[in-house]
Design brief:
The structure is a homodimer. Chain A has about 450 residues and is of the alpha/beta class. Chain A is built from 14 helices and 15 strands.
Chain lengths: ~450, ~450
C-alpha cells in the first residue's frame, strides 16, 4: 500500500482513550458469527497467491490476475462483472546486484525501487557517502554529492498504526530525486522495513523533471548497518551497483468490478488492489484486501440491501494509476456513490473503524457499535479522511470514505518484499477482518444516513 | 556447522532431570564476572564479519580471513601464531534461478547446495514430483523418477538441541544421490531451516561414485509450500532450474593456530571455524565460535596455567576438510593433546557443559560446577562424545573432547542463509558463552585429571 495522512492521526489516540471508546454494550449477531466461520476469504487469497503469484501492473501475470478476478466474481454471483482497461507505467525488473569492491569486498542484498534509473551494463562504481538521517542529506548543498553513491541508513520505527512507514516511504519517494539534485550518481536507502532479514523492500520512487532519474535501490537493514560500520572505519568504501530495469509507459491494466445490486440506486464501493510488487506473491499486499472485501460484500448481501455493494479490484495501486482511472471513468456516477473504502494493510485484526465524520455518533450506528464490540473493534468518534490509495480520487471528488484499520505490526516487516507470501496470513486474523467489514457493510448498505455529512471535509484524501 | 550424533541424546534429558543437575552451590568468581563484562568476543566477530564478510573455503575472502586471523591472534599476544595450509574442495556459486513455467508461472527462491551439479546454460525444464517425506521418496523404486525434478517438502522440527537439523541435514547430504539413483534430473528440498523467510539455507551434499552429481537446491519454506499447493491442484507443474556452479578441487585453505603456553607440555585445543557459507557474513556460523573461544582462552590464561591453551581457527569446516588435515598434520603430537573442543552453534547462551566421560563427577570439578551455576549452566553427568566437526578426527584418534551446548532455537532459523549476519548476535548471550568457556578452560588447564578416562569411548566422533 501507499500511506495517506490519516494514518498518522491514529497515533495520537492513547490507549486510555481507546478503552473508553469501546462500547460496553455487545449484541448477539448471527451475521458476525457466520462471517467469523466463513472460509471464502482464505480460499480467495490462497487461490490468487498460488495460481497467479506476483502480479505487477502492466506485466503478464497482471493479465492473468484480471482473468482470475473476472472468473472469481462471476462464480461468486456478482452481477455486471467486467474489466475496465486503463494505461499504467510498468516497472520491469532486470538483473540486480551490488557489492562492496574495496576495502572489504563482499556482496550486498538490494532491490531496485520502482521507476529506478538503469545503470550501464558494467554498473556504477563509486565511493559511498553515508547519511544517518534524511535530514542530514537534505542539509548538504547542491553539488556536494557529485560522483557519490548516497547510502541513507535511517531506520524505520515499528508501530501499530504505520506512522514509521509514513516517514520512510516519503524518503523512498523523494530521496532519489533529492540525492540526484545534489549530484549523486545513485541512491541506496535502508529498506522501509521493520524486519531484520536480508530481503529488502521495494516500492515506488517519484520521477520529476527537475532532476535526473538516477539508479536507486533499497538495502536490507543488515546491509545498511554493514555499510555504516565499514564507513566508520575511515577508508573510502567503493561499491558497484548494477540495475537493469525498464520503465514501460502506456502498458494495459484493468480495474475489475462486480455488483451485488440493492433495491435503490445508491452505490457503496469497496475492494482491494489486484496488482502487487514483484518480489513476493502479494498475499498481505493486497491479496488479503481483495479477499476480505469480496467475502464481506457477499456475506453482507445475503438479504438484499437498499444500496448496491460494488466490489472493485484495482489494477495499479503500487504505481498509482488505478485511482485516477476509476474516478475519471465514473465521474458521471459519482453523485450516486455514497461511500467508498479499500482494504490495503494486511490480514488484520482490525482495531478501529472510522466512518465518515459525524456518522459514528448517529443513533443508527449504535447497533453496529454493539455488534463490533466482541471483535474488539471500536467505532472511532473522529471520521475517516481518505479510505485507501485507490479511492483517493473518489474522495477528492467528495465521495465519503470508510477506513477499517488493521494492526500492522507484522505487515511492515513483510510488505513489498519477497516475504509477502501466503504463509504470513493468519486465518483467524483474516476472519476477524472479514467479520468487521461484513458488519460495517451491512449497516452502511441499509442505513438511512446521508454519509455526505456537513462535517465531512471535502477535497482532501491523498 | 555439521551435526554429530551426540546432539540427539541431549533431547532425552527431560526438563526435570536438568533441574536436578544444576548444582545448588554457587560460588563467587571474579573471573566469571570479568568474562561477562569483556568485549573481546564482540569486537572479534564484529571485525571478522564486517571486514571479511562471507569467506567460503578455497575462495578469495578465505585468504583474507586467514590474514585477519594471523593478525588478530598476534595482536592478542598468542605465541607461535601460524597458518597450516591444506587442500579443500571449493564450491564457487554462479548464477542461480528457478521458476514455475506452467501452469502458474512465477519465480521461486532457491539456493544451490554445496557440491551441486551444474545445469546446462538454458537450465533443466521438467515436471516436478512432490514427496511429503524423505521416506516416501526412498520408498519408490529405482527408475521411477526418470525425467522428474524431485521436490521434497518435509519440514524441519524447531528444537533447542538441534535434533531437527540432524534429520534435515542427513536428507540434504544424501537426498540428491538417492533421487539421482531413482532417475531424477534434479533435486529440490525444503530448506533445512526453521524460519519462514524466502531465504533458503545452503549446505553440503554428498557426491559418491554410485550416482550422478545432479543439480540440487534448497527451496525457501514458503516456496516449498507453494509448490506443494500447486501440485495438489492436479495439473503437471513444470519448473525450470538453472544452477551455474563450479566445484574446484585442490584449492588452498588454512587452519590458523596460536598458543597461550602453559608450564607443562600438555595441550588443550579449542576454536571455531574461520570459513563460512557464501550467502551471509558467517556471524553465528561461525564468527561467534571464533570469537568466543579466542576471547575465553585469553581470559582463562591471565595467570599461567599448567597446560597450554591452543586456539585453532579451522579453515574448511563447511566442506569438511579441516578436521582431517589438522589431525594428520599433528599425528605425532596427539599424545600431548589432552582435550579438544569447538564452538560451532552460535552465540549462546550455553545451557549444558559436557566434559569427557567420568570427569563431571570428579571432586576437582565441584568448584567449576559452583562457578558455572549462576550462568544457569549445569555440568552434565554424561560425557561429551565428539566436540565439533573440526575435532572429530582428533576424537577418532582418542583425544577427549568437551562440548558446551548453546541454545540453538534461533540458530537454525539463520545458519547457512543470507540472514547469518552480525545483527543476529545478542551481545549478552555471547558474553554468557564467553564466561562459560572461560571457566571451563581455566579449570581444565589446571586440573590434575587425566581426561582419557577409562569410561571414554574410543574411535567414535563423526
Amino acid at each position: 500500500m501507499r500511506i495517506a495522512a490519516f494514518a498518522l492521526s491514529a497515533a495520537l489516540i492513547t490507549g486510555g482513550a481507546r478503552a473508553q471508546i469501546i462500547n460496553d454494550r455487545q449484541s448477539v449477531s448471527p451475521l458476525r458469527e457466520q462471517a467469523l466461520a466463513d472460509k471464502t476469504a482464505w480460499n480467495l487469497v490462497e487461490s490468487l497467491t498460488t495460481e497467479i503469484g506476483p502480479r505487477p501492473a502492466g506485466q503478464a501475470n497482471a493479465a492473468r490476475a484480471k482473468d482470475w478476478a473476472l472468473q472469481t466474481l462471476t462464480r461468486l454471483g456478482f452481477k455486471n462483472v467486467h474489466a475496465e482497461q486503463f494505461l499504467t507505467q510498468a516497472f520491469v525488473r532486470g538483473a540486480e546486484s551490488a557489492a562492496v569492491v574495496a576495502p572489504y569486498p563482499q556482496s550486498l542484498s538490494i532491490v531496485g525501487l520502482g521507476r529506478s534509473g538503469e545503470t550501464p551494463a558494467e554498473g556504477i562504481t563509486a565511493p559511498i557517502q553515508v547519511f544517518k538521517t534524511y535530514a542530514d542529506m537534505l542539509a548538504v548543498p547542491v553539488g556536494s554529492l557529485i560522483g557519490k553513491i548516497v547510502v541513507l541508513v535511517q531506520p524505520m520505527l515499528k508501530s501499530t498504526d504505520g506512522s514509521g512507514y509514513g516517514v520512510l516511504s516519503a524518503i523512498r519517494r523523494n530521496g532519489p530525486g533529492e540525492a540526484a539534485k545534489r549530484g549523486a550518481v545513485a541512491f541506496m536507502m535502508r529498506s522501509a522495513s521493520t524486519d531484520d532479514t536480508r530481503l529488502p523492500h521495494t516500492g515506488e520512487m517519484f520521477v520529476n523533471a527537475d532532476h535526473p532519474r538516477i539508479p536507486a535501490a533499497a538495502l536490507s537493514p543488515p546491509d545498511a548497518e554493514q555499510l555504516d560500520r565499514m564507513a566508520q572505519r575511515g577508508k573510502p568504501v567503493i561499491v558497484t551497483l548494477k540495475l537493469a530495469n525498464t520503465l514501460v509507459e502506456g502498458a494495459p491494466a484493468w480495474n475489475v468490478s462486480g455488483d451485488l445490486p440493492g433495491t435503490g440506486d445508491e452505490i457503496i464501493i469497496v475492494g482491494g488492489h489486484l496488482d502487487s510488487w514483484d518480489q513476493g506473491t502479494g498475499a498481505i499486499d493486497d491479496g488479503a484486501g481483495v479477499a476480505i472485501t469480496t467475502a464481506a460484500a457477499k456475506l453482507a448481501t445475503q438479504t438484499q440491501r437498499k444500496r448496491t455493494l460494488r466490489v472493485v479490484l484495482w489494477g495499479s495501486e503500487e504505481m498509482n494509476f488505478s485511482s485516477a482511472a476509476y474516478a475519471k471513468a465514473h465521474a458521471a456516477e459519482i453523485p450516486k456513490i455514497v461511500l467508498a473504502g479499500e482494504s490495503d494493510t494486511g490480514d488484520g485484526p482490525v482495531w478501529a473503524v472510522r466512518l465518515p465524520p459525524g456518522v459514528a455518533k448517529h443513533p443508527a450506528m449504535a447497533q453496529l457499535s454493539a455488534q463490533l464490540a466482541p471483535l474488539k473493534v471500536p467505532l472511532y468518534p473522529d471520521g475517516a479522511m481518505g479510505g485507501g490509495e485507490d479511492v483517493a480520487d473518489l474522495y477528492a471528488q467528495g465521495v465519503p470514505t470508510i477506513s477499517l484499520r488493521p494492526d500492522t505490526l507484522r505487515y511492515w516487516d513483510l510488505h513489498h518484499s519477497a516475504d509477502d507470501t501466503l504463509d504470513k496470513i493468519d486465518p483467524a486474523k483474516l476472519a476477524q477482518s472479514v467479520a468487521a467489514w461484513t458488519l460495517v457493510l451491512a449497516a452502511a448498505a441499509d442505513a438511512d444516513i446521508d454519509f455526505r455529512h456537513p462535517d465531512a471535509p471535502k477535497g482532501l484524501g491523498k
